[in-house]
Amino acid sequence: MSKESDYRLMNKQLVALLGDETNLIANLSNASALLFENLKNINWAGFYLYEKSSNELVLGPFQGKVACIRIQIGKGVCGTAFENNRSLIVEDVSQFKGHIACDAASQSEIVIPLIINGEKIGVLDIDAPIMSRFDKTDQQYLELFTEILQKNSQPLIY
What we know:
Blueprint: H1 3-18, H2 24-38, E1 44-51, E2 56-64, E3 70-72, H3 76-84, E4 88-90, E5 108-116, E6 119-128, H4 136-152
Antiparallel strand pairs: 1-2, 1-6, 2-3, 4-5, 5-6
Helix pairs in contact: 1-2, 1-4
């Protein structure tokens, strides 16, 4: 199967997995597991959620090794993608100014902003132990993946 067909199948699986569930944490938990089980050559897949009171991204549901708990807005790949409200592909994290190394094995990364009801609520973050793991195809289908999540989830109120 091609990368595109693998992503199409995974996105269909996400729709089926979510069903009528709208709880954000439950949906992000299953989504991170789905990503981790289906994407090749990755070592971390998860979410950071925006905490208004601290103005930081805080670790949410994920699969992989332990991770950094808090990320300042504008710092690292996740904080930069969130601040600029745009997806980022980093082919070599050692070349990204201000990269936050939670796992020394990670060499490339993709981050996709999460928006619910027009409000930025966090990011999807996926790391890989190889350089140049992610491309525009990954970005396209992972943005669709997050759109499915966003349509089926209600933001947390805190």
